[in-house]
Amino acid sequence: MKKGLFISFEGPDGAGKTSVLQGLLPKLATFGMDLETTREPGGVAIAESIRSLILNPENTTMDDKTELLLYIAARRQHLKERILPALEDGKLLLVDRFIDSSVAYQGFGRGLNVEDINWLNTYATDGLVPDLTLYFDIEVEEGLARIAKNRHHDVDRLDMETVDMHERVRQGYLSMLDRYPDRIVKVDASQELELVIADALAVIVERFFKN
Ligand code: TYD
């Protein structure tokens, strides 16, 4: 039985969602729930192995459907080993990327059928959806400029994609925002980090911790 709260963090590359997630932790710690954070693809050993396979820049021949199925497989394992136990323990669980990334990147970005991806997501998660999804929105050029400036990691396979692909990914997120207005809330990620954190916190408090 699920007792915790599940919040996913989504956005195009360079939106800064991972920094926002880290910045929220001390503030959320005051609400009395145990916190847990994790990320996709990865978060548990099997899924981290799948992550290396997907993001390895040497894997230039990877087919789009293979890529999708690997993300889905990583999601399933992560769900069983991390997400469900955390929710059963009553934790406030913050997850860096989840189902919407597959729709945005493999669906809108790569052009795979979105309804097929929705079905695969449901299959992998047994229909679990986050209680809230924060979507960190930023113009593609601005996001890519941030990545170029703050690069601490090596170039991965997804980083090598074209600006057009990133543009389609962003449009995908914007269309999901229209489709799931009760679940997904947009946060303006072009602001200073502290302001983005404050906006994200306000959404979480309004939704779950008001009185
Ligand atoms: P990561 O370095 O974690 O990127 P970020 O910090 O932007 O989250 O790499 C994850 C990459 O995988 C990112 O480019 C988005 C992509 N991705 C998909 O294409 N589909 C998915 O289902 C998921 C979970 C991630």
From TrEMBL:
S-adenosyl-L-methionine among keywords: no
GO cellular component assignments: cytosol
UniProt enzyme class: transferase
Protein's UniProt keywords contain Plastid: no
InterPro entries, A to Z: P-loop_NTPase (IPR027417), Thymidylate_kin-like_dom (IPR039430), Thymidylate_kin_CS (IPR018095), Thymidylate_kinase (IPR018094)
A GO term, aspect molecular function: ATP binding
UniProt-annotated binding residues for ATP: 11-18
Superkingdom classification of source: Bacteria
Catalytic activity: dTMP + ATP = dTDP + ADP
Domain Thymidylate kinase-like: 9-197
One annotated GO biological process: dTDP biosynthetic process
Keywords linked to the UniProt accession: ATP-binding, Kinase, Nucleotide biosynthesis, Nucleotide-binding, Transferase
Any one Pfam family match given in the protein's UniProt record, by short name: Thymidylate_kin
EC number: 2.7.4.9
Function description: Phosphorylation of dTMP to form dTDP in both de novo and salvage pathways of dTTP synthesis.
PANTHER family: THYMIDYLATE KINASE, UMP-CMP KINASE 2, MITOCHONDRIAL
UniProt record similarity statement: Belongs to the thymidylate kinase family.
Protein name: Thymidylate kinase
